[in-house]
């Protein structure tokens, strides 16, 4: 229930934009354009704003094009062949086929098909009805974008909330692997692996929130001045995705190592905990709109914690993944890959030339 309430709080501004925008689109289409039943206008608002995150401008364009295709094909065919079961099948097939040829986006295809059904059943062609419906869709799309611009959610708050969950998931996975190694418990390592496998959802939500935040900051004049605060998250997005993926491999190799394929290095549990702390420090600095200098220094300190002893195969793979995670986090905190790799101490192990 707590997660649902948290999601509702996150999406409340978008719900408000949809509600206000739908009402305004109806009023504009009815009272300004003079359309008696402009239901496409509020529908276009909902689809262009959406209750999801990201690509609202694209959804508006797809909505208008989809309605235009569906209404155009529907008006043309129904006025010629009439209405009925086989006519509906033909109209829908042709409208959706045209939508597929125009664009691969699912919204344009679905909207073309649904608009064609409405024309073939409830709204038979009459005069300029098709043109009016296209104008309604355009009106709703434009009103939707205006609602985003004038009633915006805070783009920085939006991305910071989603990033917080991703950073927490990454730090928690690092700590769980550390505990499993410290206790030599393959069962704990298996639990850490299960938890790590679920972290990709956090990454995808963060990426989606980042795309939406940039969209809001670009469209809304109220937030254009704050676009620079999103730069840190933009820099961190891809490296953090890589770090999460590498933690999964680290957890998988920890299971193998603790089941007897080779003991992990003695320094690794402490190093993983310090890396988890540095991850949360990175979250804190980005959330405050700061350059993540302290986090970068903390990650650099962890990079130097490695020993130079030789390891077995499973332990060597774990070391490789640990080093990859360090490189990922150094990049996420603003460094480039060459500098990050150079910050790692050299390895004195067989095959170390393949390990970053």
UniProtKB/TrEMBL annotation:
Keywords: Membrane, Transmembrane, Transmembrane helix
Coiled coil location: none
Taxon lineage: Bacteria, Bacillati, Actinomycetota, Actinomycetes, Streptosporangiales
Entry superkingdom: Bacteria
Protein name per UniProt: Aromatic acid exporter family protein
Membrane topology: Multi-pass membrane protein
Main location: membrane
Keyword check for Membrane: yes
Subcellular location: Membrane
Annotated transmembrane regions: 35-53, 84-102, 107-125, 137-160
Record InterPro entries: Memb_transporter_dom
Transmembrane listed as a keyword: yes
Species this chain originates from: Nonomuraea guangzhouensis
Domain Integral membrane bound transporter stretches: 24-146
């Amino acid at each position: 229930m707590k997660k649902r309430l948290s999601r509702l709080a996150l999406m409340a501004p978008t719900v408000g934009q949809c509600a206000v925008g739908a009402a305004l689109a109806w009023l504009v289409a009815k009272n300004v354009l003079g359309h008696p039943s402009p239901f496409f206008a509020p529908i276009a608002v909902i689809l262009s704003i959406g209750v999801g995150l990201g690509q609202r401008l694209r959804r508006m364009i797809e909505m208008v094009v989809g309605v235009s295709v569906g209404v155009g094909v529907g008006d043309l065919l129904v006025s010629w062949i009439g209405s009925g079961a086989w006519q509906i099948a033909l109209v829908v097939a042709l409208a959706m086929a045209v939508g597929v040829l125009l664009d691969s986006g699912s919204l344009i295809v679905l909207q073309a098909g649904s608009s064609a059904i409405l024309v073939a059943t409830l709204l038979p062609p009459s005069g300029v009805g098709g043109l009016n419906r296209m104008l309604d869709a355009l009106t709703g799309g434009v009103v939707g974008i205006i609602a985003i611009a004038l009633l915006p959610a805070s783009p920085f708050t939006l991305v910071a909330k989603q990033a917080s969950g991703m950073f927490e998931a990454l730090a928690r996975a690092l700590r769980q692997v550390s505990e499993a190694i410290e206790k030599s418990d393959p069962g704990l390592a298996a639990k850490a692996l299960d938890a790590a496998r679920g972290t990709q959802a956090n990454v995808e939500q963060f990426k989606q929130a980042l795309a939406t935040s940039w969209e809001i900051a670009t469209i809304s004049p109220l937030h254009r001045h704050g676009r620079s605060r999103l730069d840190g998250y933009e820099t961190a997005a891809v490296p953090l995705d890589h770090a999460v993926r590498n933690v999964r491999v680290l957890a998988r190799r920890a299971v193998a190592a603790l089941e007897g394929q080779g003991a992990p290095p003695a320094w690794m549990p402490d190093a993983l905990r310090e890396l988890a702390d540095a991850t949360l420090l990175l979250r804190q600095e980005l959330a405050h709109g700061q350059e993540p200098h302290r986090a970068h220094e903390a990650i650099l300190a962890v990079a130097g914690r490695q020993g130079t002893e030789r390891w077995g195969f499973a332990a060597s793979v774990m070391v490789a993944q640990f080093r990859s995670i360090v490189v990922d986090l150094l990049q996420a905190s603003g460094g480039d890959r060459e500098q990050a790799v150079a910050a790692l101490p050299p390895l004195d192990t067989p095959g170390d030339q393949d390990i970053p």
